[in-house]
Write a structure and sequence with these properties.
By secondary structure, the protein is mainly β. The protein contains 1 helix and 10 strands. The protein is globular.
């Protein structure tokens, strides 16, 4: 199994990571911000867009992955209820906006209007597949 491992150190890198985590799903209760270590962890089941269905692989797949942010100064949540840890979120995009470069904010934008905004010293993110992969029941689709 070929496991994906990506490192993002700038806005362009983060755009590549964002493309790989589009339509990832996760539970609210699994999101973890640790102020003491300035880390924000997002365990997820990402849709493997890079693994297009083919005759050899007729079904798309999801992979057990983790998105890890370092140098996080703050985390603010809007439109997501921390009181409902079993709610499932669908990630649409991860964006970076500089405020005082290299510092800025990273937004995790979810379907349904939820957002998590991370205040960061700089962009430092890692996406790592953890090994589990299985056939997805369907391919994500979005209305224009």
């Amino acid at each position: 199994m070929d496991l994906l491992k990506l490192l993002a150190l700038d806005e362009e890198d983060l755009g590549i990571v964002s493309a790989h985590v589009q339509d990832a799903v996760m539970k609210v209760g699994d999101l973890d911000f640790t102020p003491a270590t300035r880390q924000f962890i997002v365990p997820m089941y990402r849709f493997a867009w890079e693994k297009e269905a083919s005759l050899a692989r007729p079904q798309p797949e999801r992979r057990n992955s983790i998105l890890h942010f370092d140098r996080v100064l703050s985390a603010k949540i809007s439109g997501v209820s921390r009181g409902k840890p079993d709610d499932v979120l669908s990630l649409l995009a991860v964006t970076y906006t500089p405020t005082d470069p290299p510092a800025g904010r990273i937004d995790l934008v979810f379907a349904g209007g939820g957002t998590i905004r991370l205040g960061v010293e700089c962009v430092e993110a890692r996406l790592t597949d953890l090994g589990g992969a299985w056939g997805a029941s369907s391919r994500p689709a979005h209305k224009d």
